[in-house]
Write a structure and sequence with these properties.
The chain is an all-alpha fold and 252 residues long. Helix 1 (14-88) runs antiparallel to helix 8. The protein has one domain (14-251). 78% of the residues lie in helices and 0% in strands. The protein contains 8 helices and no strands. It has helices spanning 14-88, 96-104, 117-125, 133-170, 173-188, 192-201, 210-224, 228-251.
């Protein structure tokens, strides 16, 4: 009868257990590191994609903001001239062409609509965390300025309606429209001679009533005295440059 002998398996010593532990630990650690690296690369690539999209949004905003800022700066300056004229002169002693031209700007209205699709997508998905903290903070600050300017435009809407109603009692529509045509042409190519030519026509006012003119002045004064539109749009343009510089620098 044949007897089979099983090989004797010796017990592992402490050193072998320790080496096995080290190997397992290293494998888990390296796997964890590799996964983190993979996630970092993925997040960076996604951040780069979002950055490219946001850059296009903000560039579109800055083009709109530059026109907005220029428009309200011009309006505020012309209204300032209008108020100065009425402060030191009797309405009937002021050339009516000047009253028409400078008074027209009391009804100036423009509104800013932010191109914020990328920001809203990142905000809702929590992807803002893909950006460096300083960049995410500046992007959020830019968005707050956008919301503030849009809220200012919204608040202006009611008083703008009142301004237009009062203006219609003082200035005749067809002459206002003629002044508007000059404004539109000057947006394309500015020509001071167009303005002077309109002013020289001295179209008649519907009313020289001081009370009515005073009401109109108070309305437009409340719109332009603090210069919120100009100040906020200026801050927004500066913040846009900050964000664009950071995004371009970080994501090339």
């Amino acid at each position: 009868m044949e007897v089979h002998h099983h090989p004797h398996v010796g017990k592992k010593n402490l050193k072998e257990y320790f080496l096995e532990f080290v190997m397992i630990f290293l494998a888990v650690t390296l796997g964890f590191i590799a996964e983190n690296i993979r996630e970092d690369i993925t997040e960076h690539q996604r951040a780069k994609t979002f950055a490219a999209s946001m850059i296009q949004d903000i560039k579109a905003d800055t083009m709109q903001l530059a026109l907005y800022h220029k428009y309200y700066t011009t309006a505020a300056n012309n209204i300032d001239t209008f108020m100065q004229l009425l402060t030191v002169n009797d309405p009937r002693d002021i050339p009516s062409g000047k009253l028409y031209w400078y008074g027209l700007w009391g009804g100036a209205y423009n509104n800013f609509i932010a191109n914020d699709a990328t920001f809203q997508q990142m905000k809702s998905s929590g992807s803002l965390s893909f950006f460096e903290p300083s960049i995410a903070t500046d992007v959020a600050k830019y968005d707050r300025f956008c919301r503030l300017l849009q809220a200012t435009d919204e608040m202006n809407r009611d008083i703008y309606t009142e301004v237009r109603k009062t203006r219609s009692l003082i200035f005749e529509f067809k002459y206002n429209e003629a002044a508007n045509q000059v404004t539109q042409k000057n947006r394309i190519a500015f020509n001071r001679a167009r303005i002077d030519s309109f002013i020289a026509t001295n179209p008649p006012l519907l009313s020289y009533d001081k009370t009515l003119l005073n009401e109109y002045v108070e309305l437009v004064r409340s719109r332009f005295l603090r210069g919120y539109n100009v100040a906020i749009s200026d801050s927004l343009l500066k913040q846009a440059k900050v964000v664009l510089d950071e995004l371009n620098k970080e994501y090339h």
